[in-house]
Every structure is written in structure tokens, then in C-alpha cells.
Fold this sequence. Notes:
Blueprint: H1 6-13, H2 17-26, H3 40-49, E1 65-67, E2 71-76, H4 82-91, H5 94-98, E3 108-112, E4 118-122, H6 126-135, E5 143-149, H7 156-167, E6 172-177, H8 186-195, E7 209-211, H9 220-234, E8 237-239, E9 245-254, E10 258-267, E11 270-271, E12 275-278, E13 281-289, E14 295-296, E15 298-299, E16 304-310, E17 319-323, H10 326-356
Parallel strand pairs: 2-4, 2-5, 5-6, 6-7
Antiparallel strand pairs: 1-8, 3-4, 9-10, 9-17, 10-16, 11-15, 12-13, 12-17, 13-14, 13-16
Keywords: GTP-binding, Initiation factor, Mitochondrion, Nucleotide-binding, Protein biosynthesis, Transit peptide
GO molecular function, one term: translation initiation factor activity
Protein name: Translation initiation factor IF-2, mitochondrial
Amino acid sequence: FDGMTIVELAKRTGESISALQDILVNVGETVDSEFDPLGIDIAELIAMEIGVNVKRLHSNVGAELLPRAPVVTVMGHVDHGKTSLLDALRQTSLAAKEAGGITQHIGAFVVRMPSGASITFLDTPGHAAFSAMRARGAAVTDIVVLVVAADDGVMPQTLEAMSHAKAANVPIVVAINKCDKPAANPERVKLQLASEGLLLEEMGGDVQVVQVSATQRIGLNDLEEALLLQSELMELKARIDGPAQAYVVEARIDKGRGPFATAIVKAGTLICGQHVVVGAEWGRIRAIRDMVGKLTEKARPAMPVEIEGLRGLPMAGDDVIVVESEERARMLSAGRKKKLEKDRLQKVGEERMEIANPSE
Ligand code: GTP
Ligand code: MG
């Protein structure tokens, strides 16, 4: 919708030009001519008013794209060692050492490799967050680490994680964990995974498998190397300059600091002081903190940061967009809230219909 004129918007949506102009007036916007391009925020507002679903497509045409770090999510069956593995990986992080081993929990962390490359890990507990984010169109994760306990083998949630990754078209790197246990049987795990359709590298496919022990801290470097290799194959790149496009990984409210969110920038640069709309909330970024809690002015792609200054609590998977003014931020937030409420009422209505017609 970006750059579209009223005339084009009318054509695309089947609404009359005058109806669209009325909406424009209602949202307090003036456009000199119906042939003037509308900004993307205005286009979104109009679309919401007429009940059209919009998705912001961020164009990187003409922008310089630079390599960026991969964003990795760890998934797997209950008790297979996801948290232990993340803890162990977190301790390999240079920043963790710099901060004297004390890292605050911000829902994500970065591991810097000796080569200078880095990997961003999301701390979010598994499937729920991943699905929620995917359902909301937030493709934050580039690679899934599928943790399978070497003694327990493939279990229901292992398969669930596999299908989540597949549906999201996100490549998997398998970490067979608990390899220190006497009952560990990595070969059996590999056969199980293969029989579930995972094309493992050593069997001629392209899914890497690494054997690790989170608690004994074995194989962590191998895992990190495998992730880097996978990310190199994917040639992950991002636009660095220009307005940020980011996603919320988790959000909380703190008595002193108010609502704050951990966000990962996908493209562009997020700058302190900017007005943002986050999901249906808005705010002006008062502070940006890096993963060790240090204040910073800017956040670049693949960098997890905590942002303060939001007026309400956003949800995991919400998009963060930068807008030009507080007025615009308020307007978009109000529009999105209205749309959410409309969708909710419609859903309630549909459920009532289903109850009224149980056979359908
Ligand atoms: P949920 O969050 O409950 O799904 O579990 P999780 O996947 O996060 O597993 P968690 O890291 O909590 O580990 C479960 C148990 O396995 C704990 O008692 C860990 O100490 C143990 N464990 C994790 N990794 C290893 C390992 O590499 N070797 C051994 N021997 N035990 C491990
Ligand atoms: Mg856990």
C-alpha cells in the first residue's frame, strides 16, 4: 500500500474515491490531490477503516544489504534440556563474561564467535512463543535448534517442533543432548529422526546433527559452528540504514520502568527518542538497553534490545514500526486497537453462530 494514491486504493479495494476521502478527513489527514501518494501509515489506517487486512511489506529496493547474524530458537520435548542448553550457550557468550557472568534476563542473548561472527539466541520458551509469533506473521527465527535427549529419543513435542519449523520454512539443526548419560543412544535418535522424514547430513541430506551435553558443556562449539555454517548457507542480509522494522520477543511491566519489551530488529536501525507503534500500543523510545542492560543509542539488525517508553504492554510477535510523530503514533495505535476489538467481536459472533448451528 505504500506510495499508493487514493485513486489506486479505490481501484484495489472497490471503495469509492469519495468514501476514502471521507475516511482521510476522519483520521485528520489532508491530501491535496487524489493523485498524491499516501504514506504507508495512512494507507494502513484507511485499510483498517474499510476492513481490509494489510500487511506491511518493507521494501529494501535500492538499499544496501549487509550480512547479519542469524536468530536462533531452541525447541524440543519437555525435559530434553532446552533451558540447560541455552544456559550453557549463554555462558559461552563473551558479553556474559564481560558482565562478570551476570546477565540479566532479556529474553535473548548474543554469542560472539572467535571469528567475529555472532549468533542471536531467543530465550523464549519454545513452541508457544514460536507459534504465537508465526501466527502473527513475525518471522523472527532463522534457524531452529531441535533438542532431542539422547536417552529419551524422539517424543511427541519433538515431532511438533519439527512440524512448526517445517511450516515456517525454517531450517533445523539437531542437537542430540545428554550424550554424557550412560543410556545415551545418539544413533537410535538419528534413525528415529530420519524415519520421521528429517534428511540428516550424514545420510545424504542437509540437516546437520551435533552431539552435545548441556550440563557437561560438551559439543557447544560444534553446535555454534553448525549454526554459523547453516546461516552462511542462507546468506542472511539486512538493510542497516533507514527506519527500523523490529519484532517483540517478550514484554513485561515493571513497577518502576513501566511496560518494556525485548525486541529484535530485522532491518534498519532503531534509535532512542523515536516514536513507535508496537502492535496496538505506542510510545516514544525513552531508553534502549543491550543484552547486558547497558544503555545504547541505537539497535541494529539481529541485535536483541530492551526498549522502554511504551504506553501499554505489547505481545510477543508484535511488530515495531517507527512513525514520524506522536500524533501519528496515537492514531495508528487507536486504529489498530479498534481493528482488534472489531475482529474480537466478529469472532465472538461467529462462535455464537456455531453454537446456534452445532451441526455446521
Ligand atoms: P522444559 O522447559 O520443562 O521443557 O525442560 P527443558 O527442555 O528446558 O529441560 P531442562 O534444561 O530443564 O533439563 C531437564 C533435566 O535434564 C534437568 O534435570 C537437567 O539437569 C537435565 N539435563 C539437561 N541437559 C543435560 C545433559 O546434557 N546431561 C544430563 N545428564 N542431564 C541434562
Ligand atoms: Mg525449560
